[in-house]
Amino acid sequence: MIIFPAIDIRNGHCVRLVKGDFKQETIFAKDPSTMAEKWTAAGAEFIHVVDLDGALAGSSQNLAAISKILSKTKVPVQVGGGIRTIANIEKLLSLGVNRVILGSVAVKNPQLVKEACRKFSGKIVAGIDAKNGIVAVEGWGVSGNMQALELAKSMGQVGVEHIVFTDIARDGMLEGVNVEATADLAARSGVKVIASGGVAGLSDIEKLKPYEKSGIEGCIIGKALYTGAIDLAAAIKLAKEA
Questions:
Q1: Which one of the listed residues 8, 53, 167, 171 is annotated catalytic?
Q2: What pTM was estimated for this model as a whole?
Q3: Would residue 129 show up in a list of annotated catalytic residues for this protein?
Q4: What does the pLDDT look like over 149-178, one tens digit per residue?
Q5: 82 in Cβ contact with 141 (< 8 Å)
Q6: Residue span of the structural domain in which 54 resides
């Protein structure tokens, strides 16, 4: 199982929010690339980056910070946050981003996702953010009026190979990952799923591991790393144990 340390960027800084609330922001590093270096040194295999300003604006806003992260690590990086055009996807991939996460556009324009999967095979991830099983879009501020499972299945049909599934009711709360909903989504959609939201301790990784065979590819850890609740090296070691 892959552990994805998260770097959320706002105004060029590495921050963490609570339930996606921009009013509940904590800055953990002025320069996000320093966190990329830290997580790489701890053994990260893949880094998860979210452009929070991009999520609100509808296009990437922190390209300079993302470029600097890419220059400081050889570890593959996946990026999400307001990416809604083929041109935006091409720009990020040209910088050296390994995978691009499409969120709101997956709900609003699945045809674009299909085109992206055809054009950038293996590089497109669907970001599904949900509360009580209902998809949220536009930086979590608007209901997508769609069941998460319905969206996951449709993404698989257009060529998406990976999904980041976030339970936004738990994000930044350190209340534990929603294992049941994540495992159900993976098993019923047939698409590899990365768990996100609420990872609080190593016990969450232990709870997810039995579902690797049914499609859980890994988990994203954010706030728990920044508060010291989880040591990244220990999390990676546990994730690799048989």
A1: 8
A2: 0.93
A3: yes
A4: 999 999 999 999 999 998 887 655 567 888
A5: no
A6: 2-240
